[in-house]
Design brief:
The chain has 253 residues and is α+β, with helices and mostly antiparallel strands. The chain has helices at 81-84, 87-103, 111-125, 130-144, 188-198, 214-230, 235-243, 245-249; strands at 2-16, 20-27, 31-37, 56-63, 69-78, 166-168, 172-174, 184-185. The strands form two sheets. It has a five-stranded mixed barrel.
Length: 253
């Protein structure tokens, strides 16, 4: 038991009882934690600004015997205003947050995952291309979770990929020797862009446009991989699909 102060991104914010809220935080040192914020839904609450979803804040937490922590203070570090003003950016940010929620367990410190999430939010807020930012962030989140396949080698035999490479659902890229009828063709330009993304730092995400159609194709691969390993389509993905995904499917990167 004790008190902790940490930087955290608010992944979820849900009303609880009459004046309180339940929040899911992803903290730099503590990892993912669930907490109750008492009185945060009252007009005079000093914590409300720091506990909005998709806010980076400095939070004070009381850690008791329960797995549910208590927020005793929250000061916003940044609310990412440009993200909140644009539906596309907000949707992509929510998808990143939901993916972090799906790929992590509570009370598991993952500073690398925290840096990827903050980097994605900063890139989206900085005016970078939303589709490219999301694909890069999702790919790096898969790497932090130990799930990412090697974009240069066949996931079946380990050989270097060739021009006839394909993408196997739930597995990753495969070479022409291992390719089967159920595998989808993978364009060389898309694989080359994915390898480029694999080595990029967050500061560069979305700064340059992907080759025509590459971001949409790689996003399909990433989504397929996420669903195969998570076991379902994350909620924020479904919400985004209802608004914008049909346009991305058509290749409007």
């Amino acid at each position: 038991m004790g008190r902790e102060r940490d930087r955290a991104v608010v992944l979820r914010h849900r009303p609880y009882r009459e004046r309180d809220a339940l929040v899911t935080l992803f903290a730099e040192r503590l990892g993912k934690v669930a907490a109750v914020a008492k009185g945060v839904r009252t007009p005079k609450s000093r914590m409300a600004a720091g506990l909005q979803a998709l806010t980076l804040a400095r939070v004070d937490l009381y850690v008791g015997r329960s797995a549910l922590l208590t927020v005793t203070g929250a000061e916003p570090e940044t609310v990412f205003p440009r993200v909140r003003e644009d539906l596309e950016r907000m949707g992509r940010a929510a998808m990143c947050a939901d993916l972090v929620d799906e790929l992590t367990s509570e009370h598991d410190p993952l500073p690398g995952t925290f840096q990827v999430l903050v980097g994605a939010l900063e890139a989206l807020d900085g005016g970078r291309r939303p589709a490219e930012v999301f694909v890069a962030a999702a790919w790096h989140l898969l790497r932090e979770a130990g799930l990412k396949p090697d974009p240069s080698r066949c996931a079946a035999c380990g050989r270097m990929l060739d021009a006839q490479a394909a993408w196997r659902s739930g597995t990753g890229p495969v070479c022409h020797r291992c390719r089967t009828a159920g595998d989808r063709p993978a364009r060389p330009a898309s694989l080359a862009w994915l390898r480029h993304v694999d080595g990029e730092q967050p500061a560069a995400w979305g700064s340059r446009p992907a080759p025509p159609g590459a971001a949409a194709e790689v996003e399909r691969w990433v989504r397929d991989f996420v669903v195969a390993h998570v076991g379902r389509v994350p909620r924020a993905f479904r919400v985004y699909d209802q608004v914008a995904w049909p346009e991305v499917e058509e290749g409007k990167d």
